Amino acid sequence: MTALPALKRSTQDPPPYPRLSRPVALVVDDSTPVRTTTVRMLEGFGFLVYGASTVAEARGHVEGLHEPLDLLVVDIVLPDGAGDGLARELRERDPALPILFVSGYDRTDLLHGAFDELDAPFLEKPYDLERLAEKVRALLRV
Description:
It is a single chain. By secondary structure, the protein is α/β, with parallel strands linked by helices. The chain has one domain (24-140): 3-Layer(aba) Sandwich (Rossmann fold), CATH 3.40.50. It has 5 helices and 7 strands; from the N terminus they run βαβαβββαβαβα. The chain has helices spanning 32-44, 55-64, 83-93, 112-117, 129-140; strands at residues 24-28, 48-52, 71-75, 77-78, 81-82, 99-103, 122-124. Strands 2-1-3-6-7 form a 5-stranded parallel beta sheet, sandwiched between helices. Strands 4-5 form a two-stranded antiparallel ribbon. Strand 4 and strand 5 (81-82) form a beta hairpin. The termini are far apart. The model is unreliable at 1-16 (pLDDT under 50).
């Protein structure tokens, strides 16, 4: 596992390039229909969204970004690793990163310690636009 370098959110050190006008989200889910639908929903909320089906693909997207993520939506169970491991890794880079865990499994069947440890809410699949919007609004406090 390759650790990603830390990103800093600082108003004292603005990047040498302009900030995109839209917030940036990463959706990591191995289910293509769920990932595609979630990406479309978040785009409808105004996000620039990257989708990944594996932890490795998600890391590739993050390494290519020139600015911090504004939101991570991540499935707990992924084919090449655990979503909570990726969430911890990205939270180490950016302690303020809002994280939303999703899964088709019931929360009680999962590693619920990660939800508490990372102060991240959980959304059980399947979910609709209203439930996703509610969680995103609460995370971003908008």
